[in-house]
Amino acid sequence: MTAATLARSREAAASLNAGCFCASLDAGRLRAALESEIGSPEVFALVQERCPHMFAARPVFVSPVHLEEMASVIAAVESVTKLAAYRRLVLDRSPAIARHDPGAAGAFFGYDFHATAGGLGLIEVNTNAGGAMLNSVLARAHLACCTPVEELGPDIAAAERFEEAILEMFFSEWRLAGRAARPRTIAIVDEAPAAQYLYPEFLLFQRLFERYGIRAFVADPAELQWANDGLMLHDTRIDLVYNRLTDFYFDDPRHAAIRSAYLAGAAVVTPHPRAHALLADKRNLALLSDAATLDGLGVSGATRAALLDGIPRTIVVDSGNAPELWAQRKQYFFKPFAGYGGKAAYRGDKVTQRVWQEISAGGYVAQQVVAPGERSISGDEERPLKFDLRNYVYQGEVQWVAARLYQGQTTNFRTPGGGFAPVYVSPL
User: What is the pLDDT of residue 38?
Assistant: First the structure.
C-alpha cells in the first residue's frame, strides 16, 4: 500500500467522523439487548439512572490502516514483554508479589490509542480494562439509515463471537493455571461493587457466566475469606476471581483473602499483579519508547521501529529532569505510574505550580502529547468530541476495538453524546 493510499484511508475516516450522521444509538435496540438477549431486565434501568452517558450517540469511523497499525504496535509490545531481559528489568523494580508467576496470562488487557489522519500513538496499557460486555451490547444497539454505512460496523454475529471469545479467555486462564475442565464458580470482585459506575457490566458478566452453567457472584472483597486452604464467599468455594480491583498488588489489608489465595494457588485470579507489572505500569512505556533501552534488550529492527513509531516518547519524572520537563510541560501529559481512569493525570499546559510540586516529587511519567481523534455527533454543534480507541487484547490477539467519546482532558463518561461507541471501519 502506497503512502498516498495510506493517507487517503486515514483522511476518509476523519471526513466521515466530521460529517456522517446516518448511524446512531437506538434506545429500543439498547433496551432489547439488555433485557432480552442478555437476559437482564434491571440493567437498562440501571444504565438510564446511573450512567446515562455510558453509550455514545454516534459510532466512530476508523481507517483499516489504523487498525493494522494498532495491531502491529500491540504485537511488538507483547513480544518485548516476553523477553527474559525485559522481565528482569521490570520485575526487579516491582513489588515482590509481582514476581509470583501464577501461570495465567491475565484477562482483559486494554491498549488505548489516539488516532488521527496524521498517525497514531499508544497512550497506555491497562489491566482489568472495563467495558467489554457493554460494547457487546452496543454492537446490537446502533442503527444506520443506509445499508452501505450499516455494513461498516459490527453486527450481532460479531457481538456473539466476542462473547464466546470472552468465555474462552477465562477458560484459557483456568487451563494456563494448571486446572482441568472448567471453573465451577466465579466471583466478579470490586470494592462496593453495587456503587461502582460500571456495576451494570458486572451484572452482564454474571449473566454470561451463568448462561454457560457457571455459578457467578458479584462480590466485595470484604465478603471473601481465606479458610480451609480455599477462597470462600460465605459458604461457597470460589474457583476463579475476575479481578476488577484497582489495588493492583493487593496491598490493602481488606484484600488479604484474595492475596493469600492467589499466592497459594488456591484460586485463579485474573488479571493479577504480575500482569500489571509487566504491561500496565506506566514506566514500561518509558522503556518501550526509548531506542537505547530497546537496543540493550536486543529487540529486532522491525519490532523496534513499530514501538518507536507507535508509542509517544515517555520519560520517568525525577529530580534531575524535572526543571527541563517543567520548561517543556506543554509538550507532555503527566500520569502516575499506577494510574487508571485518568485519575491524577494532567495535561502539561494545565499544570499549576502546586500540582507540579506533587509531580516532580516522583511517581509520575511525562508522555509526549498525541492529539486524540475527533468525532462530530451533530451537524450544528460548536465543536466535536474527542475520542480514543480501546483494543481489548488477550495473549497478543485483538478481540475487539471500541471507541470512547468525551470532552475534557480524559475519558469520563460524563459528556452528553459521549461514552462507548462502536467502531465502523471506513472504506479504503
Answer: 62
- Cell numbers placing 310: 507507535
Cell of 381: 454543534
- Closest-CA residue to 420 (of 59, 18, 41, 27): 59
H/E run at residue 326: helix 322-327
Look at residue 39 in the predicted model and tell me its pLDDT: 63
What order do you get walking across the sheet with 240-243 strand by strand? 215-219, 185-189, 240-243, 268-270
Alpha-carbon gap, residue 195 to 265, rounded angstroms: 30
Q: Which long-range contacts (CB under 8 A, 24 or more apart) does 230-238 make?
A: 230/261, 230/266, 230/267, 231/187, 231/257, 231/258, 231/260, 231/261, 231/266, 231/267, 233/185, 233/187, 236/185, 237/185, 238/185, 238/186, 238/187, 238/267
Point out the residues of the chain with pLDDT beneath 50: none
Q: What share of the chain is helix, strand, coil (3-state, %, to 5)?
A: 45, 25, 35
DSSP label of 55? B
Q: Is the pTM of this model over 0.85?
A: yes
Contact 134, 54 (CB under 8 A): yes
C-alpha 188/C-alpha 245 separation (Å) is 10
Which conformational region is residue 108 in: left (phi greater than 0), alpha (psi within -120 to 50 degrees), or beta?
left
Calpha distance 134→200 (Å, rounded): 8
